[in-house]
Amino acid sequence: MSSRVRLKIYYKCLITAAILLMLGAAMVLSSSSPYALQSTGDPFYYFKRHCLFFIPGLVLFFYFKNLPYEKLRKFAKVLILVSIVLLVLTLVIGTEVKGAKRSINFKGFRFQPSELAKFSLIIYLAHFFSRYEENKKSKKAFLIPLSISGVIMLLLLKEPDFGSTATIFAYTVGFLIVAGINWFIVSGMILSSVPAVWYLIHFKPYMWKRITAFLFPEKDPMGVGYHVIQALITIGSGGLFGVGLGRGRQKLEFLPEAHKDYVFAVIGEELGFAGCILVLTLFGIIIFTCFWLSRRIKDIFGRYLAFGIGMYFGIQVFLHAGVTAKILPPKGTTLPFFSYGGSSLVVSMAMLGVLFSIINNAEIEFEQTELVSDVM
Fold this sequence. Notes:
The chain has one domain (70-335). 70% of the residues lie in helices and 3% in strands. It has helices at 3-40, 45-66, 72-93, 113-134, 143-158, 162-178, 183-203, 205-215, 226-236, 250-253, 263-296, 300-324, 342-361; strands spanning 95-97, 100-106, 109-111.
């Protein structure tokens, strides 16, 4: 690929990422201020912590950006092992919040191992399936990553963290499809999740309440349907161009978790439909670039890795926006760069660093008949 095209992709992704980070920081400040003022007395509390987490995120971004992505293969197994150990430790010594143990508290800072698990699993799956393709392994070898993904999902369900569980499941299915695993096997894996879903609904009453809230929120507007209704009111009250950044009213008293699980609704209220489209378009540029690269990188590991990064951002955005717009049942899923959460921000920036390493170092096949304008 010509250096001109590589530079075009590099700077387009760099500008896009910079806009996402700046706009995300502005939305963290806007969406968290009322809750921060009420809970801590400092309206800038969560924004300052967001900026604090930005520092290690930036360090990891430059570290992975300057690290040849091929070297990640050496750390794939170690990362996945560390992630599993930390998930187990979370169940033992984790901090319980609203009946769930999802984070480990260390000197006032909470770390969510589920975010590291997402990063680690993508590296591991890219490593495994690249070896699977290069060495023409036995068709039964794919049971190894299935087992590892299964262990991670069981640990996440134990916390419980259904949003991360669904994300890990989606990663695994996506990699199986791209790796060319027989469709009967993939279909069987998807169907095998049905009994698990039935178990959760049957033995976890609050899961059924979530589904009920998703289907019929108006039946209990002040109870289980409250989040769904308020999210729709919030995102719909912004109109075409919104009421203005920082001027949203729903976050003041009505919309719960406005700075975390429902920040996309605040975007809709304050920046309007145009703002929502802008944010989705910016993420779309990053995601499309990942998938475009995954089709043209000569190195097999690089192809799978680029695909995994596209999956990481694509699924997170889809789940978060889908819950807000009542396309999916309520579940705790962050919007990268926009939702308050140090673990999510740090891991998302590390993912960006790996993407830029791929752009800088991968050997990419570029068809001469393809216009540069067609790249993005």
